[in-house]
Amino acid sequence: MISFKHVEKYYGSFHALKDINLTIERGEVVVAIGPSGSGKSTMLRCINALEEITTGELLVDGVDIHDKKTNLNEVRKNLGMVFQHFNLYPNMTVLENVTIAPIKVLKEDKETATKKAEKLLEKVGMLHKKDEYPTQLSGGQQQRIAIARSLAMEPDVMLFDEPTSALDPEMVGEVLDVMKSLAKDSGMTMIVVTHEMGFAREVADRVIFMADGQILEDRESESFFDHPKDERAKQFLSKIINH
Ligand SMILES: Nc1ncnc2c1ncn2[C@@H]1O[C@H](COP(=O)(O)OP(=O)(O)OP(=O)(O)O)[C@@H](O)[C@H]1O
């Protein structure tokens, strides 16, 4: 469903992604880990063309998204993205934040969009806040709403870019719990960039370890955590675990 073939990415003269080859199948939960600056976010952002690739090929459901002729809006409808910062609309209620895109983009009528939004808000434990405004809510609550907002577009794939790293520690768990249930109950294809190793170990089917713009490991999660092969992956894990 997502396929990188020999993808290279430069920012000016800086080589951010080096020969990335990666295939992600429908329903897989893939977690990308690695040191800061290793290219994880860049890789994720290339998938919905928030970043352009320099060379190589990147297919999403068979569509070459970096082909100038591709209608990116169509492709992006199927790719939900949750960022570190939640970017909710501050002047809209929680419910309006979740219904706006389905009404405007998917042309759903208000009643259908509202029913769907309420179900999703219930799923992320935020239905009781539907008439409040984002600024009245905690970071963890806002991030759960951001997840509901993405899901309202009924994407095939959810991309998460360090969704818990801007949160106070006591709020991380509630967001990870929502993501866990999404991974386990919905069969959603998910690609998650995170520093949360417990989450990766528990939820990921596969782990990708990146360093210096390269994928150094791409393996089933359990085997990766039990026996990392790459020296840098070993060091990375031992540093994180000893912290
Ligand atoms: N717009 C940009 N212009 C120039 N360099 C960039 C840009 N975005 C990212 N980079 C550089 O590319 C490298 C990879 O960045 P990226 O954000 O993908 O790393 P990351 O692994 O996600 O790191 P972190 O865990 O800190 O978010 C970094 O060295 C970063 O400074």
UniProtKB/TrEMBL annotation:
GO MF, any single term: ATP binding
Family of this protein: Belongs to the ABC transporter superfamily.
ABC transporter domain residues: 2-237
Record's protein name: Amino acid ABC transporter ATP-binding protein
Pfam families in the cross-refs: ABC_tran (PF00005)
Gene source species: Vagococcus carniphilus
InterPro entries named in the record: AAA+_ATPase, ABC_ATPase_HisP-typ, ABC_transporter-like_ATP-bd, ABC_transporter-like_CS, MetN_ABC_transporter-like, P-loop_NTPase
Record PROSITE patterns: ABC_TRANSPORTER_1 (PS00211), ABC_TRANSPORTER_2 (PS50893)
Domain of life: Bacteria
Keywords: ATP-binding, Nucleotide-binding, Transport
Classification via SUPFAM superfamilies: P-loop containing nucleoside triphosphate hydrolases
